[in-house]
């Protein structure tokens, strides 16, 4: 069986996806996927991810955080991983999988809470931790949006 491959020859599932990342049948019209492996500054990552969360696209926000996670080293690697896990948790909640959502949001919390004392990039870690206690609505990455 032939596998879908990207231009570099890496295995990639080319099936179209719905807005929550679920695979659709080949030939179906899906939602454009977030490009992978984009190098962004932390501020660009946070801005893009918040925009996607606000648009109801947590799966896509997860992909933005995943790029940062894969590109980072310690001590921030766990931060980006945790933010990606929270976005995946939101994706599961939107898909109706509450058990999976709770588990992933908790994993995200486990990864971001150590940054609460000295949050990098003005991320509102304390606010995200409060939100995770009752995850309704869209989480805010900043207490006050950063200026221009």
UniProtKB/TrEMBL annotation:
<dbReference type="InterPro" id="IPR023203">
    <property type="entry name" value="TTHA0068_sf"/>
</dbReference>
<feature type="region of interest" description="Disordered">
    <location>
        <begin position="1"/>
        <end position="43"/>
    </location>
</feature>
<protein>
    <submittedName>
        <fullName>DUF309 domain-containing protein</fullName>
    </submittedName>
</protein>
<dbReference type="InterPro" id="IPR005500">
    <property type="entry name" value="DUF309"/>
</dbReference>
<dbReference type="Pfam" id="PF03745">
    <property type="entry name" value="DUF309"/>
</dbReference>
<feature type="compositionally biased region" description="Basic and acidic residues">
    <location>
        <begin position="1"/>
        <end position="20"/>
    </location>
</feature>
């Amino acid at each position: 069986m032939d596998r879908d491959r990207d231009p570099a020859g890496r295995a990639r599932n080319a099936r179209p996806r719905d807005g929550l990342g679920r695979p659709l049948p080949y030939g179906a019209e899906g939602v454009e996927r977030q490009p992978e492996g984009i190098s962004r500054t932390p501020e660009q990552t946070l801005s893009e991810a918040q925009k996607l969360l606000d648009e109801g696209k947590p799966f896509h926000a997860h992909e933005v955080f995943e790029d940062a996670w894969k590109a980072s080293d310690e001590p921030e690697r766990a931060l980006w991983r945790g933010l990606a896990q929270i976005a995946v948790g939101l994706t599961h909640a939107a898909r109706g999988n509450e058990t999976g959502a709770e588990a992933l949001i908790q994993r995200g919390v486990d990864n971001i809470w150590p940054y609460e004392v000295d949050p990098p990039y003005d991320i509102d870690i304390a606010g995200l931790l409060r939100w995770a206690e009752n995850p309704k609505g869209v989480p805010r990455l900043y207490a006050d949006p950063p200026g221009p």
